[in-house]
Design goal:
This protein has helices spanning 65-72, 95-104, 122-132, 138-151, 158-161, 170-182, 200-217, 228-234, 252-257, 262-269, 280-286, and strands at 14-23, 26-29, 34-37, 42-50, 54-58, 80-85, 88-89, 105-108, 188-192, 220-225, 237-242, 245-251. It is α/β, with parallel strands linked by helices and 287 residues long. The strands form 3 sheets. The protein has a 6-stranded mixed sheet, sandwiched between helices. It has a 4-stranded antiparallel sheet with strand order 4-1-6-7, with helices on one face. Bound molecules: adenosine-5'-triphosphate (ATP). Residues 25, 41, 59, 61-67, 226 line the site of adenosine-5'-triphosphate (ATP).
């Protein structure tokens, strides 16, 4: 159930609006017993993401990318600004409306080694969101889990059900994390450096999978990366983030072909792998 104050008017083609959002962390000084706010991790950030697109958030370590993702997911509170997902005012969501928001937006985490509960079997891992959201009976859950696992390239799904994360490779674990993210059929997925812990050939397979999910299910992606080559291959538009601020936003090819900010120019100059991912999207589109 969504209350009136959670609703705003939004154009149908924009799924997410982040407006002038600020987040600074509190630093405690145990020796003095006091605290102070650090300079903002997210500093007056505004981005708009269109329905069905892959939008890249590109920046170096510590630029504020993960913090922004956590604010969008309402895992943390922001200090100022506003975030709207469709017609929902994310900052004001609570109770049932927060729960319903959490069905629509999912995250694929960075580290497939740490993100899965070692005590949950693969079936339990992928089924857990269905249990939390009380979707389906046992039989229906088996069917939904199987579909999510097949979509994520874990076939035959039944071969994986009773295994545990430590019995899988890094690439298989990341597929489990992806199956878990898609099992609720979200409209929006935040993928936070989903391939940074994987070797190149497995990364390419995971990118193909993300392409397939985007194309077949019209899922909108916020793709977080420090790797411009990966963003170039996957994202229609990108925002470059540096020290908490968005310093450049636009069509990916336009920014890479004609960067304006010195930081973007330096990021491009530092990329060794601009060629390797180039044709993946085209290849997977043919399949
Ligand atoms: N819980 C926290 N408490 C205090 N400071 C934090 C916290 N989380 C992040 N920060 C700080 O906020 C800044 C942005 O961090 P964030 O993790 O968002 O960057 P990032 O761009 O995702 O980096 P990386 O690519 O290395 O993951 C950093 O200076 C970081 O130290």
């Amino acid at each position: 159930m969504i209350s009136d104050q959670d609703r705003i008017q939004s154009p149908a083609d924009i799924i997410l609006r982040v407006e002038n959002v600020v987040k600074a962390y509190e630093m405690r000084h145990f020796s003095f017993g006091g605290s102070h706010k650090t300079s903002p991790a997210v500093d007056n950030v505004t981005i708009r993401i269109n329905r069905g697109e892959a939008f890249g958030l590109v920046g170096g370590s510590g630029s504020g990318k993960t913090t922004l993702a956590r604010l969008i997911l309402k895992l943390e509170r922001f200090d100022a600004g506003a975030i709207h997902f469709e017609d929902l005012n994310v900052g004001k969501l609570k109770g049932p409306s927060l729960k319903s928001f959490r069905r629509k937006i999912q995250m694929i985490p960075q580290d497939p080694y740490q993100s899965l509960n070692p005590y949950f079997s693969i079936f339990e891992t992928v089924a857990e969101p269905l249990v939390i959201h009380r979707i389906g009976d046992d039989k229906a859950r088996r069917r939904i889990v199987e579909n999510a696992m097949v979509l994520s390239g874990l076939t035959p799904a039944a071969d994986y059900y009773d295994r545990y994360p430590h019995q899988l490779s890094g690439g298989q674990r990341q597929r489990v994390a992806i199956a878990r993210a898609v099992v609720l059929e979200p409209q929006f997925i935040i993928a936070d450096e989903p391939t940074s812990m994987l070797d190149a050939s497995i990364s390419i397979a995971v990118f193909k999978l993300l392409h397939t999910i985007k194309r077949r299910h019209n899922v909108t992606f916020l793709f977080i990366t420090h790797d411009l080559a990966a963003a170039r291959h996957f994202c229609e538009r990108i925002a470059v983030m540096h020290r908490g601020k968005i310093i450049e936003t636009g069509a990916t090819e336009k920014i890479i072909g004609n960067p304006q900010a010195p930081y973007t120019k330096a990021l491009i100059a530092a990329q060794p792998r601009f060629v390797s991912f180039r044709n993946i999207g085209k290849e997977s589109a043919k399949k």
